From TrEMBL, chain A:
The lineage of its organism: Eukaryota, Fungi, Dikarya, Ascomycota, Pezizomycotina. This is Ribosomal protein L14. CDD domains: Ribosomal_uL14. The keyword Ribosomal protein applies. HAMAP family: Ribosomal_uL14. GO terms for cellular component: ribosome. It comes from Aspergillus cavernicola.
TrEMBL record, chain B:
Belongs to the bacterial ribosomal protein bL19 family. InterPro entries: Ribosomal_bL19, Ribosomal_bL19_sf, Translation_prot_SH3-like_sf. Keywords: Ribonucleoprotein, Ribosomal protein. Residues 29-39 have a biased composition (Low complexity). It comes from Aspergillus cavernicola. Signal peptide: none annotated. Residues 29-49 are annotated as: Disordered. This is Translation protein SH3-like domain-containing protein. The lineage of its organism: Eukaryota, Fungi, Dikarya, Ascomycota, Pezizomycotina. The keyword Ribonucleoprotein applies.
Length: 131, 227
């Protein structure tokens, strides 16, 4: 149930930590796993005080940036085809560019398998674990 | 002029009264005269044995009326008589397919089976596609064919809950990894979602159990992804 003003965790290494949903794309109802949303970066990850010097792990996004993202975990339970329900304890997303490729190169955290049905296999392969 | 015409119109209604009525007398006299009773002429009976080609030429209203009999159907047999308890019948027929041995049902029937799964136990479910999922059982919902249990675990420091249908054909196996030490006093352990009571990850318990199992059976641990 991701909608306007929902705050999500960003679980990739793009540099965003907490983002806010400003638009759900291609849908007139709240977003769930696999849906594309537009976000504003509210909090960026700090890689220590010396991160500014090291350009290798510099943040790819900054606070206030407007980006697209894919929801990968939701608190609202999702029903599977066999009737089982899956829910997570938080809402999380992964930033993507306009063409749909993830901005970050790594992901930390479990994601939902529903991404495969929505053709987000690239994100699924980056994830360390999926349920 | 106008006043005269108005007056004339008002007086117009009394014109029939002023008319001479010579007919009235004659009417009375005619009523008193009795006449011979002539019965209404009866219809001639329709001739039988008319050749087919003539019968078709006679208009419909002159044809003898063949009264159509309305067909009366008997009431449909009561569904109640056919099946006394349809819900139980359907449930049993489904159980016969999904759980022919009844093993899965008794594993979760905590009302009757003392050796069944209890809330607070750590369970490990392996699905048909090989994905395992383990977690603490927070609740067991006994409702016939829809019987399900709720597992909670923590994967990569994120709490994950999965409600699994007991009789789902997607479920390959359910095993009890660890029984709860103390009997839980509640049927639903939803308080375990709170940080204070959360069991956090049960991965080490499950991996210990899997190691023991593989040592007992003398096999290598299953190649499935550790959860």
């Amino acid at each position: 149930m991701i909608q306007l003003k929902s705050m999500l965790n960003c679980i990739d290494n793009s540099g965003a930590a907490v983002v806010e949903c400003v638009q759900v794309l291609k849908k007139k109802r709240p977003a769930t796993v696999g849906d594309r949303i537009v976000i504003v970066v509210q909090k960026q990850r700090s890689f220590g005080p010396d991160s500014a010097n090291n350009s290798g792990i510099a943040n790819k996004v900054r606070r206030g940036d407007i980006r697209h993202a894919v929801v990968v975990r939701v608190k609202k339970e999702m029903q599977r085809a066999d009737g089982s329900l899956v829910k997570f304890d938080d809402n999380a997303c992964v930033l993507i560019n306009k063409s749909g490729d993830p901005i970050g190169t790594r992901m930390n955290g479990v994601v939902a398998t529903e991404l495969r049905a929505r053709q987000w296999s690239k994100i699924l392969s980056l994830a360390p674990m999926h349920v | 002029m106008a006043s005269f015409s108005q007056l004339a119109r008002q007086l117009g209604c009394s014109r029939p009264l002023l008319k001479p009525q010579p007919l009235i007398q004659s009417q009375i006299s005619s009523r008193s005269i009795t006449s011979a009773y002539s019965p209404k002429p009866e219809h001639a009976p329709f001739p039988t044995k008319i050749p087919e080609q003539f019968l078709s030429q006679i208009p419909d209203r002159f044809k003898p009326r063949i009264q159509k009999r309305m067909k009366i159907y008997p009431p449909p047999p009561s569904a109640r008589a056919a099946c006394k308890d349809p819900i139980t019948t359907v449930k049993e027929s489904q159980l016969a397919v999904l759980d022919p041995t009844g093993e899965r049902g008794t594993l979760f029937d905590y009302r009757r089976n003392p050796r069944s799964v209890r809330v607070g136990d750590i369970l490990r479910v392996v699905f048909k596609n090989g994905d395992p999922f383990s977690g603490v059982c927070l609740s067991i919902k006994l409702c016939g064919i829809d019987t399900s249990f709720l597992l909670r675990n923590e994967l990569t420091r994120v709490g994950v809950e999965m409600m699994v249908k007991v009789y789902s054909p997607n479920v390959q196996s359910v095993e009890i990894v660890q029984r709860t030490q103390k009997r839980k006093r509640r049927a639903r352990l939803y308080y375990m979602r709170k940080p204070k009571h959360d069991m956090r990850s049960v991965e080490n318990v499950v991996s210990n159990y899997l190691r023991q199992q593989s040592a007992l059976t003398g096999q290598r641990p299953s190649s499935g992804k550790k959860r």
